[in-house]
Design a protein that fits this description.
By secondary structure, the protein is of the alpha/beta class. It has 14 helices and eleven strands. The chain has two domains: 217 residues, Aldolase class I (TIM Barrel); 68 residues, no CATH class. α2 packs parallel to α3 and α8 packs across α14. InterPro entries: Aldolase_TIM (IPR013785), NMO (IPR004136). Pfam families: NMO. Keywords: Flavoprotein, FMN, Monooxygenase, Oxidoreductase.
Length: 314
Amino acid sequence: MNKITTLFNIKYPIIQAGMIWNSGYKLASAVSNAGGLGIIGAGSMYPEVLREHIQKCKKATSKPFGVNVPMLYPNIDEIIKIIVDEGVKIVFTSAGNPKTWTSFLKEKGITVVHVVSSTIFALKAQEAGVDAIVAEGFEAGGHNGRDETTTFTLIPMVREKISIPLIAAGGIATGKGMLAAMVLGADGVQVGSRFAASTESSAHDNFKQTIVNVKEGGTHLTLKELAPVRLIKNKFYQDVQALYEKCPTKEELVALLGRARAKRGMFEGDLEEGELEIGQIAGLIHDIKPAAEIIDEMISDFETARKQTLNLDF
């Protein structure tokens, strides 16, 4: 019996990441309807927009779904109230101290999962009482850990230290990757980049096509002084690198980043001046397709790979 499918009452241990500007109700409901766990990304939504997406998701699926909440969100109190009022049963927290909201959410009957990038934070999350942990390696897109620990290094180290269910994230877009993560100790996987390039993703078509066009080495983890983020190497990225050559202050980096840079790139489709966040695995993504097909392919690939490993020899 799989710990993740049991915890969330889903068919497959595949969780769609709550990516800003990509993870609206259409994607979340599609993933849930296909047997995974869909996640609405609250990080790019004003409170009332989040409420609307939750309500639409409830109408679009009868299956479990969750909400990802970056805890640095300025309206965090209002966001949490909406989640409770709307009866959301699963919350993924990230970018903050899990002790802040875990007890409150669990008292409301909500299953809580926290996203970490190190063993130290995994232990703190377990101590805070979360139900499961997402351990994310630096291959991942979006905001990331500063230590550049790879997923396949991080998962067995975290597994060694914690006893609660473990979800692997970062660089996983295929069934083979899913199998490898589970062999290393994960109970399930969280998938971001592959779902960003899905039909139901709320990202701009320009961004989706750019994901498909990314080749190996086409992304880089940068802006560690602010919040580490993996970017596609477009004009904005080159501007960041040019500024780094001048040994910039944190204030100069903030000035270059400006406001709504991620929205400009991923949601509005500005491929030059926008911030384009995606994982290293984009080099293995070659098409845009419905979320249900992505899940079907992953499960088929997983089963094939599992059978093939039984025949391995040395």
